[in-house]
Design brief:
By secondary structure, this protein is of the alpha/beta class. The longest helix has 29 residues.
Length: 415
Amino acid sequence: MLPRFSFGVGDRFASQALPQLRACQRAAEAGVEIAPVWNKSQREHALIGTDPAQTRAAADAAVRALGWNRPYFLDADHINLSTVERFLAPCDFFTIDVTDAIGQPADPAAVQALADRHPELLRELSLPGLAQPLSMDRERMLAIAAKYLAATRQAGEIYRYIESRKGRGQFVTEVSMDETDQPQTPAELLLILAALADAGVPLATLAPKFSGRFNKGVDYEGDREQFRREFLADLAVIAYAIEHYGLPQALKLSVHSGSDKFSLYPILNAILRETGAGLHLKTAGTTWLEELIGLAESGGEGLRLAQEIYAETYARREELCAPYAAVIAIDPARLPSPGVVARWTSAQFTAALRHDPRAAAYNPSLRQLLHVGYKIAAQLGDRYRRQLKANAGIIARNVETNLYDRHLRPIFLAA
């Protein structure tokens, strides 16, 4: 079972599981259990040339080395029926991504049937945590059902396939609907949860869309008060769905692209303390960037390799940015030329890349560009991996510090 708090940790080169787990161990020593969930998507495996079994092996080795006796998981991140197969054996957490099915045509009779099964939603509902009562008429209900029915049915189909191979109760199920244009309203979310319950999906976490921009590797851009209201409203809807639709009592919200959203962490911390809610927060490329920072900090060959990776990423930026266009916002005018970066000292490179918004040299455009540049490091093959090993100590310090001090502590521990 997934604990109240869990944290998705990306480890693109399967080299930093030990310092990542050490950060979770420090949180446990401080009195808060946070389950690490190593997540890596099909896209990342394909670009790097790795396999989910390698991520499992790295996580298991770290657990043995540190004597970790608490829950931990391996996430098949953003899978669907076409990609799930290679994740079945090593993974015990499945993020079922049905975003692309939102808005797909649904059988009108099935839409009517979904509405017919839930007449309780046609009355005004006053939910604790919602500023206004929730209400929808039949027409609105049918519109929501038509928009989301294909997605919830797809989630059910994928879940049942995984269950047929893994066994009921042998894995954690998350449904993701976050990579869409607009946040789900409370009414939409409630009908989505009802439909997922009808489909027999035992949700552990749900990743909805929140307002604002969750760009990769940089802070949140948007109205923080609106985010707070949306998060509380989603909690209210989840509580109702648990009570009325038999969904798991431990069902919790998941925040995707959650790394480096420093301005949201005090809000999340306060909500968790006030409500007793759980949280799953997913990160990805932060660890890869800490590897680069460690290489640059080490000087010599490590710095030169980091500069080379920047130069190649800069040259191929259109190709590398294209898959992430919806979740990055790079200002080309703020990108230094490779010739300039080639003359940087270790201190200059790390100051530009490390996410410290107070530092004058911090460059969010450079950081986002390098965030998507992990393919370049992968293509360097053994050259890159040798430098990871040669500078393992300094990299591990950066990885652990980033995860514990900048993420786990302000979200889950800070008063």
